Amino acid sequence: FNGNDNDGGPTVTLEFAGNIGDSTSGIARTYVCANRDALIVSVLDSARSLANNKSATLTAVGTAGYRLLGVPSTGEQARGDLFHPDPVQIQCLKSLHQISCAAVAYLDSYGYSSFDANRPVNVIEECDVVVDACHVFNANVLPNAVGVLDTERKIVGALLEALWVLLIKLCLSLPASRRSGSGDSTALSAQHRSSVERAATPLFQALFRLCCTATGFRTAVDCQDTLDGIQLIWTISDPFTSYWATMVLAALLSRQNVLFVAPNANSDIDKEAETLNKRILLGLKGADSGQTGTIEGLVGGLLREKGSSATSSSGSDLILLVTSSTLESILCSNHGTTAKEHFGALLGALSSHHRALMSMLQSPISLIIENTALMLHVISTQSPETSRAIRDDSLSSAVILHHFHSAVFSPLEGQRFLSRYLCSLWFSGPSDCHEKRLLRRMIPNGFMAYLKMPLLSQAEEDQLDELEQGGIEAPSTTTQRFVLETGGGTNTKRLRSRISMAASAGTTDSQPENFRIFFHVMTRDHALPDLIWNQQTRRELRIALETELQSIHRVTEARGGRDKIAWNHQQFTVRYPSLRDEVQVGNVYMRLWLQAGDGFMKSWEDPSGLFELLFRRLLGELDRDTAVTNMCVRCLERLYAIHWARIGVFPDIMILVHSMSQTRSIETQHRILSLVATLLGVTDDLDRKGVINVPDNAEQLLNGECINLLCQFVAWGHTSTAQVANMLTSEVGGGSTMASTTLNDEKDDLLAGKRAIDSSGPAVWFVARGGQIPPDSKSIRGPFRVSELAGMMRKGEIHPHSLVTSLQTEDYSADNTSEDSGGECVDTGKWCMLQQVWQLRWQLCTDGSSTGVFGPADVAFTAICSLSRLVDLHKSLDPRGIPYYPIPIAKRLLCGGINSDDSAVNAVDVSTSTQESLSIISQALLCNDPRVVESAAELLSSLMRHNDEACAKLYLTGAFFFACMYTGNNFFSLAKLLHDFHLKQVFQSGRAAVASADELPIKDQSILGSLLPDGLLRALVNYGFQRFADVFVGNFDTPEVIWSSEMRSVLVIMIKQHIGDFPDLLKQNTTAKFEYIPIPGISYRRLDEEIFCHNYYLKNLTDEKRFPDWPITEPVEVFRACLSEWKKQMS
Q1: Among 319, 426, 313, residue whose Cα is nearest residue 371
Q2: What does the longest C-alpha to C-alpha distance in the chain come to?
Q3: Which of its termini does the chain have fewer beta carbons within 10 Å around, N or C?
Q4: Rounded distance between C-alpha atoms, residue 862 and residue 907, angstroms
Q5: DSSP states of 619-670 as a string?
Q6: 806-834 pLDDT tens trace
Q7: For 878-889, how does the pLDDT look when each residue is reduced to its tens digit (9 = 90+)?
Q8: Spatial CA neighbour of 543 closest among 551, 1079, 171
């Protein structure tokens, strides 16, 4: 390269010096460029780093006319005799040595010109021949091929000294003031200064080549002239000359760095020499004669070329390049050979002028930005105070915003890597720093978790780079403006290597954050519970950033520079319109949260905090936004099901109970019921059954209000129209049947229950005007079915405050002789407002647009399971097997064995009392849903166990009637209930009530005696509930049991006739209480001709063909029973 100025502007000539025979050899092309230095630096850097062309060099004149034998050789050549003369490089070295030494000798010996004895000596004229020799030397000796010169160590040393002497004489002829002073106020004219600096340039180029040799690198600082010359290079004002002067210094400080070569076998020797060189050269201090210290000169080079203002446009990119590269080498790449005192001094000097470094980030040269970024890294890690100032500058100047935009949206890999590195310097820090706050305001919070991921290996980073290839959206015109101005030619591999060396120079106690994966995931699409990111959101981010950058650019130009404006980063926020409709709680998108797998849920870091946020949102949206409320409840349920151990006790569970009872949304009610069940540990997953165990949650629900509400949900199961689907149900007239009662199958049943479509049920509801309780008899109307009440509600004839009752009304004014007799009506407790009746509130007073998510049977099943968890909360026996007294409070609440002044009774609803809870659970056996019947039977068994008082009167609830008339085949739970308690019922009267068990036959002892035949009853007593269940749902004709499906149909039909329309009544009034009436003994036609004697039917027992050798367990008792029966028959 060589550059000149002409009338057309600054020019750059590129000379292609290929090998002999190469078509490009000798070709030269000239270009005109306004920013010539920037172009030279960019092309030079690209040739060296991207094309791996280490031979590329820079000169002020063309080299074609000075090359002796084509392209200079870089290899070793034979030499030393007639047929093998010295290589061209050695010949040029010797020639330059002779000429330089002669010039020095003449200048030291004579005071007049060698051209004209009448004129005083002119240093420039005497150096002309040296300059020509330097041009020849520079053209034939490439910087990366100087190794051949080490064979002439003495000549190299002598030539170094001679050239430094000549340069000192040239520099001393310049004025002491620097280029930033008051101009050419010295005696020398501008033309003289230009001539001196033009003459010095090739000398510095030759010195650079000599200092790159091993001999020159190790011995140059031993010469005092070298040290004196180094202190004078800062007086040079020409950018090109100053560039080569600083390159000489850079070569002495780190030879490998300027040659772009890897360490060789003598690297240890080079390191020792480098350490010594740095200690001597960096230790040079300024003197009174105008000399400048090395550290002050290097830092001053940055200040003079870029200034302390971010808006300064003066200066040469060549000097910025060489100065920044030299400083970077000292502080980062080769910091290991830098003495601590010099490292600290240089660091302090740069820290005090960090604004100049920040302004260099606006350079279009990628290598300058790289050097600046590395130096900022070291300063930030070594000086916390300066680090804070640098961060503030990056915010105030919006540089951080500019590089964040490039880090995400630049199509150039090198630019993305460089900007991401700068962002990692500025955005790293505590979560409350201004930079982190800005980052959280610009991007969704879900990205922040990626910063905490472990750092990636080099192989993993390479894989991410491959994934990003072609994955960046094509930039718009505006985007190109912001991502291409800062130079995208960054060599990623080189910068990554330099970063690793800079990291070893800095020290930090904090854990590094993973910005590499952070920026990578920003280029991918995500649909996670805590992060929604796609092409649309990226476009919204890009538009917001570019709009802000454009605004800053306009204001900056209007006010005359970046130092005239401070960006208000505190209030900059990026909005994402595409996410506006997503329901979000904290950092969670609830829609995606509900769709996420358990693995993601388990990895959530703060489930307790999220649970609290969801609960607060639930309370705020309850009955205001049903969709949000229901999503909150579902999220709460799922979160607790997975993280119950970490969340622990939920102390506000009663707030959920109150909300569940007061909400007008059926769906919300069902969701909260499911949440409460989960808090209690209820689950449909058999593998997880009993996993959630937080007793303190259940303790909060041991009160009358909660028990009664759950019982109302149990009673709600009667509104289901589904029945067990089998032949027995059809035979006994069970109504509509369903194969199974699943959630999807029963969704329509909720609407059926709400509107009470079953018009065949009895009319039980009376209504009256609200206000007076009891109402005036003239205002009483009825009875009505629920469906009729719904019609009246729609017409406005009744309202939630109207009075209703399902009991027989009385004429309260019957005793009054006249209307104005003044008699007062007495409230008998029959009447209440419509909205106080749970069933009517749910069917008539709920939101018309609300539909349940569970069918009535599902609701009843969940409620029963919740009650079972409350019952199982406390043991009934102590470790000795003795029952506790008083019995656990859950049993007292459900069985009615609690006083009205007990602390457990509070806020009991008027439509239900604790005395009715046991009836409701027993009547759940009439729901004819397999799950409800089984769970109700198990709950009844738990309630009756070790509860003698309630157990003795269980028959009054009709439980034994309801169990026997169940038409399903899942009879084990019912069979166990019958087996455990059928002999414990106190139902006898008269003599039988005081007779002992031995005095009464089993048929008189059992409450089932009037329902089941002797053989079946004996099977229950003798063989247990499992055998009894098999027999009851099957067909048996043996000496011990005669039972068939026809006999079971008779049993069901006779019980139905006995209880009348009570099952239909429950569809109209789900909490109606069964009034027990003893049932007459049921006669089975199949047994009319059978004789049963002590466990055996004699006809089958004597049928030796069908039952040969049938075992008889108590033959003597059988014989006696036969004799007794024979006597009875004979009499």
Answers
A1: 319
A2: 177
A3: C
A4: 22
A5: HHHTTT-HHHHHHHHHHHHHHHHHHHHHH---TTHHHHHHHHHH-S-HHHHH
A6: 875 555 444 444 444 343 444 556 788 89
A7: 999 899 999 999
A8: 551
CB 360 within 8 A of CB 301: no
Q: What is the mean pLDDT of residues 684-707?
A: 84
Can you tell me the distance from the alpha carbon of 202 to that of 134, in angstroms, rounded to the nearest whole number?
A: 6
Long-range pairs, 433-437, Cβ under 8 A, ≥24: 433/391, 434/391, 434/392, 434/395, 434/569, 434/570, 435/391, 435/394, 435/395, 435/400
Q: How far apart are CA 666 and CA 852, in angstroms?
A: 5
Q: Which long-range contacts (CB under 8 A, 24 or more apart) does 3-9 make?
A: 3/36, 3/40, 3/60, 3/240, 4/60, 8/32, 9/33, 9/34
Distance between CA 832 and CA 770 in Å, rounded? 9
Hey, what's the torsion of the CAs at 71, 77, 78, 81, to 10 degrees?
40
Residues in a beta bridge with 724: 738
**Do residues 358 and 320 lie in contact, with contact meaning Cβ atoms separated by under 8 Å?**
no
pLDDT score for 1044: 93
> Using CA atoms, how far apart are residues 461 and 554, in angstroms rounded to an integer?
38
Would you say 391 and 397 are in contact if contact means Cβ atoms under 8 Å apart? Answer: no
> Do residues 446 and 528 lie in contact, with contact meaning Cβ atoms separated by under 8 Å?
yes
Q: Look up residue 892 and give its two tokens.
A: 């007292």
Q: How far apart are CA 584 and CA 581, in angstroms?
A: 9
Q: How far apart are CA 1006 and CA 991, in angstroms?
A: 15
Strand partners, 588: 585
Would you list the DSSP string of 370-397?
HHHHHHHHHHHHH-HHHHHHHHHHHHHT
What are the b/e assignments for 810-843, b being 16+ CB within 10 Å?
eebeeeeeeeeeeeeeeeeebbbbbebbbbbbbb
Q: Report the first-to-last Cα separation within the chain, whole angstroms.
A: 141
Residues ≥6 apart with Cβ < 8 Å to 1: 12, 13, 14, 15, 40, 43, 44, 56, 57, 58, 59
This prediction's pTM: 0.75
Q: What is the DSSP string of 745-813?
A: TTHHHHHHHHHT--TTSPP-EEEE-SSSSSPPGGG-EEEE-HHHHHHHHHHTSS-TTSEEESSPP--TT
Say which amino acid occupies 1006: S
Which helix H or strand E contains 947, and what residues bound it?
Answer: none
CA distance readout (Å), 526 to 377, 533, 538: 32, 5, 11
Residue with tokens 């009267």: 989
Q: What is the dihedral of CA 738, 740, 741, 744, to 10 degrees?
A: -90
Alpha-carbon distance of 541 to 531, in angstroms, equals 14
Chain segment 370-388, per-residue pLDDT in tens: 888 888 888 888 888 888 8
What is the token pair recorded at 249?
Answer: 């210094």
Q: Which helix (H) or strand (E) holds 522?
A: helix 515-522
Phi–psi pair at 12, nearest 5 degrees: -130, 130
Closest CA to 911 of 1122, 1069, 1090, 1099: 1069
Tokens standing for residue 560: 């005359």
Contact 141, 89 (CB under 8 A): yes
Closest CA to 863 of 894, 841, 837: 894
Q: In what order do the strands lie in the sheet with 803-805?
A: 781-784, 765-768, 803-805, 832-833
- Of 55, 128, 146, 39, nearest to 92 by C-alpha is 146
d(CA 187, CA 199): 19
In this predicted structure, the answer to whether residue 755 has a pLDDT above a threshold of 60 is no
140-144, 564-568, 780-784: least confidently modelled range: 140-144
992 vs 971: CA distance, rounded Å: 30
Reference 405, options 556, 539, 578; nearest CA is 539
Q: Which residue type occupies 581?
A: D
With tokens 């050549």, the residue in question is 77
- Residue 1022 in tokens: 């003798």
Closest C-alpha to 1082, from 1045, 1053, 1059: 1053
